[in-house]
Amino acid sequence: MIRAARVRVPSGLPGWIFVPAALGGLFVVLPLFAMLASVDWSRFFQLVTSESSLAALELSLRTAALSTVLCVLLGVPMAAVLSRSSFRGLHVLRSLVLLPLVLPPVVGGIALLYTFGRKGLIGQHLEVAGIHIAFTTTAVVLAQTFVALPFLVVSLEGSLRTAGSRYEHAAATLGASPTTVFRRVTLPLVLPGLVSGAVLSFARALGEFGATLTFAGSLQGVTRTLPLEIYLQRETDADAAVALSLVLVVVAVLIVVGSRGWASRAAL
């Protein structure tokens, strides 16, 4: 019996490049293993099922889901305009849209506070109508949306540019209206990119800390999300902080891995 020769397919990359790539992978993975090794497994379920922990987890999942919906509703049109339009100031507009990616989160929280706070640019008018946003659950959703929106815009804009516009032009030539083209051609064409962007936005919203603390505060059951609960537990019970951190990592990994698998199937 003749065994088939094992063919080694060259990667086309220089050999040395795998060394810094491996170091980068270790830099990301090793801290996670260190945290995993530090978990007090004898008290793990007791720590993660306390009243404050469950309330923080439930609030985080709920607000992150709402902020992701907002990101989709606002980010899809923004990505379409940035990728399909051409006008003076487009590069400036793109820079402003992506600004939350590089701003310190606490700066974003202060900006939101001076916009929607009691004496803010918009908040002072809302106060007259009896609408209070700062230091409420709504403030949590707005803070998460502010920091997560650019992730969806960047991901979807890249997908739109990669897909090109030839199918859209063909549909328009056949008489389809711009709205029909966008709904029946553009969105299905970039659906995997939209899913990836939405997942990135959800994961970013789930881990938001600085803007939430500054704009929404830390009221248990109202604005204290899981990252805030981890921060407070770190001061009093390090074991609880590590256990809750592991829960947040597991939730994020499951969401990202599951969505990437769905996006891969949708692309086929």
TrEMBL record:
<feature type="transmembrane region" description="Helical">
    <location>
        <begin position="240"/>
        <end position="263"/>
    </location>
</feature>
<keyword id="KW-1133">Transmembrane helix</keyword>
<feature type="transmembrane region" description="Helical">
    <location>
        <begin position="59"/>
        <end position="83"/>
    </location>
</feature>
<dbReference type="GO" id="GO:0005886">
    <property type="term" value="C:plasma membrane"/>
</dbReference>
<keyword id="KW-0472">Membrane</keyword>
<dbReference type="GO" id="GO:0015098">
    <property type="term" value="F:molybdate ion transmembrane transporter activity"/>
</dbReference>
<dbReference type="InterPro" id="IPR006469">
    <property type="entry name" value="NifC_ABC_porter"/>
</dbReference>
<comment type="similarity">
    <text>Belongs to the binding-protein-dependent transport system permease family. CysTW subfamily.</text>
</comment>
<feature type="domain" description="ABC transmembrane type-1">
    <location>
        <begin position="57"/>
        <end position="259"/>
    </location>
</feature>
<keyword id="KW-0813">Transport</keyword>
<dbReference type="InterPro" id="IPR000515">
    <property type="entry name" value="MetI-like"/>
</dbReference>
<dbReference type="InterPro" id="IPR035906">
    <property type="entry name" value="MetI-like_sf"/>
</dbReference>
<dbReference type="InterPro" id="IPR011867">
    <property type="entry name" value="ModB_ABC"/>
</dbReference>
<feature type="transmembrane region" description="Helical">
    <location>
        <begin position="12"/>
        <end position="39"/>
    </location>
</feature>
<comment type="function">
    <text>Part of the binding-protein-dependent transport system for molybdenum; probably responsible for the translocation of the substrate across the membrane.</text>
</comment>
<keyword id="KW-1003">Cell membrane</keyword>
<keyword id="KW-0500">Molybdenum</keyword>
<dbReference type="Pfam" id="PF00528">
    <property type="entry name" value="BPD_transp_1"/>
</dbReference>
<protein>
    <recommendedName>
        <fullName>Molybdenum transport system permease</fullName>
    </recommendedName>
</protein>
<feature type="transmembrane region" description="Helical">
    <location>
        <begin position="129"/>
        <end position="156"/>
    </location>
</feature>
<keyword id="KW-0812">Transmembrane</keyword>
<feature type="transmembrane region" description="Helical">
    <location>
        <begin position="185"/>
        <end position="206"/>
    </location>
</feature>
<feature type="transmembrane region" description="Helical">
    <location>
        <begin position="95"/>
        <end position="117"/>
    </location>
</feature>
